[in-house]
Amino acid sequence: MGFVGDTVESIRSMQIRQVLTQIISLGMIVTSALIIWKGLIVVTGSESPVVVVLSGSMEPGFKRGDILFLHMSKDPIRTGEIVVFNVDGREIPIVHRVIKVHERQDTKEVDILTKGDNNFGDDRLLYAHGQLWLQQHHIMGRAVGYLPYVGWVTIIMTEKPFIKYLLIGALGLLVITSKE
């Protein structure tokens, strides 16, 4: 009876070790992703180095679901650049083109007016109440590259949360049931 008891205990110990190894591996993957994200923030100078285009306002240049890579440089913003900006009171950033830059001589600051390429008018209706221009602190970054359609994964998971939970559950199940 001692041999069987030792074997059962040994199997149980191996299973516990395997589960702990899987949890640690999952933790390392999540930690690695966070380190990469923070590294991108430092390298690009943008609080959000990657964004997804959520509407058709920039078509035909950028379509809904395209991923934009952002960079924030010290160079002055110029007319024609694609920028991502936050508006006071809005949670989701906006991707549009700079159509006018007004440099104030007294403070050396710039006022920026934007517009979606596919929109009829400028973005003043999107800005905070009473705001006519964006300032530098509204700008999150400038588009320096993009990947078409890859952002649809994010859009689908945002618009249909059950798919996100299903995917997370499937990944968790995969981690738990994997042998290594």
Walk me through this protein's architecture:
By secondary structure, the chain is an alpha+beta fold. It folds into two domains: 1-44; 50-154, Umud Fragment, subunit A, CATH 2.10.109. The chain has helices at 2-44, 152-159, 161-177; strands at 50-52, 67-71, 82-85, 94-103, 110-115, 139-147. Strands 1-2-6-3-4-5 form a six-stranded antiparallel beta sheet. α2 (152-159) crosses α3 (161-177). The two termini are 31 Å apart. The model has no long low-confidence stretch (mean pLDDT 86). It catalyses: Cleavage of hydrophobic, N-terminal signal or leader sequences from secreted and periplasmic proteins. GO terms for molecular function: peptidase activity; serine-type endopeptidase activity; signal peptidase activity. It is a single-pass type II membrane protein. The chain crosses the membrane at residues 19-37. It is found in: Endoplasmic reticulum membrane.
- The number of helical runs is 3
Strand order of the largest sheet: 1-2-6-3-4-5
Could you tell me the strand content as a percent range?
Answer: 15-25%
Q: Unreliable segments (pLDDT under 50, ≥5 consecutive)? A: none
What is the H level of CATH, i.e. the homologous superfamily of the largest domain? Umud Fragment, subunit A
The CATH topology label of the largest domain is Umud Fragment, subunit A
Top-tier CATH class of the largest domain: Mainly Beta
Number of E-state strands: 6
Structural class: alpha+beta
| Shape category | elongated
